Amino acid sequence: MHASPTSRLDTRGIAAFVAIAYGFSWLCVLGFVLGFGTEPGKVPNAFKAFAALSMLGPTVATLLVAWKVSPLPSLKRDTGLGLGQHRLRFFLLAWLGTPVVVLGALLLSALVYPQMMDLTGLSGVRAMLAQLPPGSEEKLGKLADPRVFLALQVVQGMLLGPLLNAPVIFGEEWGWRGYLLPRLLPLGQWRALIVSGVIWGLWHAPLILLGHNYPQHPVLGILLFTVVCVLLGILLGWMRLATGSIWSAVIAHGSLNALGPIVVVLGHASNPPDTALVGITGWPGWVVLAALVGVLVLTRRLPVRGLERTRDVPEDAHTSQV
Q1: What distance lies between CA 146 and its chain's CA centroid?
Q2: Which terminus of the chain faces fewer neighbouring Cβ atoms within 10 Å, N or C?
C-alpha cells in the first residue's frame, strides 16, 4: 500500500507534468492580472476565485500526463487515490495535529516578537468585525465579542477547515504528492521530498509576487515560501509515502490553509505583522516544521521503510495495493 517507486526516473513524464502544472496555474494568475491589475486587495473575491482555479494546475497536469504522455498502470493506485493503510491514525494526526503545529508557530512568534501581536486589545479581530455588513454585530450578540468571535473562528477552522478546503486542496495534493513525489523516488526518498518541495514552492511565485502570503516581501517571499514548502512537503510527503494515499495530506494541507492566516488577525490592525517573521510562513514556522521532521528522523519514521525493496522491480510491476 506504500507508493511504489519505479526503477528508472521518468524524465519525460516529470518534465511534462511540471510544464503543464506551471503553465496552467501561471496563466490563471496572468488572467487575473490582465483583467483586474496587480492589486488583489481591490478585488479580493476575484483574486480568491483565480487563485483557487490556479490550484487545479497540478490536477490538470496529472490527468494529461497519466492519460497521454506517460500512462500509469493504475491511476487510482499509482497516484494515491485510495484510502491507504493506517488511515484512521493518519487522518486523526492530520486533523488534530495540524492546529497544534500552527499554534506552536504562533506561540513562538508571540514570544520572540510580542510587539507585532495585539493579543490583549485584539484590534485585528475588531477590524474584522467592523468589516461585517451593518447590523451583523447586533445579530451576533455575544458572539460579536472579539474574544468569542476569535475562538469561534479558530474552532471553525479546526473542525470545518479541512472539509471546506478539501476540493481546492485536492487540486494541489493529487499532483504534488499523488503524481510527482512517487515519480521522483528513484532519486532516493530525501532527494524526492526536497526536489518536489522546491518545485511546489516555486510554483507559487506569481501569487507571491502579487502579495500573497508575504505582502511586505513580494520578491524575497518566493524564496521564503519555498523553504516553507520544502519543510511542509517533507511532512506531507511522509504521510503520502507511509499510507500510500494522498488523503491525510489533503486534510493537513486544508487545515493549515484554514488556520495559518489567523496570525494576521492577531496582529495590530493599523500595522499588520510581518509574515516573514511570524506564523507558519515565518522563521518560527520553519523551526516548528523542522523540529517535526527531526522527530520523524529520530524515531526512524523517515525515510519510510519498505519502499526501497521495490526500487529495482521492472517498471510495469507494482507491488502496492489499495
Answers
A1: 28
A2: C
Q: At what angle do helices 247-259 and 220-243 cross, to 10 degrees?
A: 140
The mean pLDDT of the chain is: 90
1 CA to centre of own chain: 23
- Cα–Cα distance, 195 to 189 (Å, whole number): 10
Q: For the chain, how are helix, strand and coil distributed in percent, rounded to 5?
A: 70, 0, 30
* Residues 179-194 as b or e (16 or more Cβ within 10 Å = b): bbbbbbbeeebeebbb
**3-class SS at 267?**
strand
Question: What beta strand segments (E) does the chain contain?
Answer: none
Assess contact for 174 and 240: CB atoms under 8 A.
Answer: no
Q: By the 8 A CB rule, do 247 and 91 touch? A: yes
Please check the confidence at residue 77 and state whether its pLDDT lies above 50: yes
In the predicted structure, residue 289 carries a pLDDT above the cut 80: yes
**Inter-CA distances, 128 with 121, 131, 270, Å:** 13, 5, 12
What Rg, from alpha-carbon coordinates, does the chain have?
20
Identity (one letter) of the amino acid at 22?
Answer: Y
The rounded distance, in Å, linking the Cα atoms of 11 and 191 is 15
Give the H or E element holding residue 295.
helix 283-298
Most confident of 148-152, 157-161, 244-248: 244-248
Q: Per-residue DSSP letters for 271-282?
A: B---TTTSSTTS
pTM of full prediction above 0.85: yes
Grid cell in block for residue 198 = 522546491
Q: What is the dihedral of CA 190, 68, 24, 241, to 10 degrees?
A: -20
Alpha helices (runs of H) in the chain, residue ranges in sequence order: 11-36, 44-54, 57-64, 75-78, 87-112, 123-130, 136-140, 146-173, 181-184, 189-203, 205-209, 220-243, 247-259, 262-265, 283-298
Amino acid in position 68: K
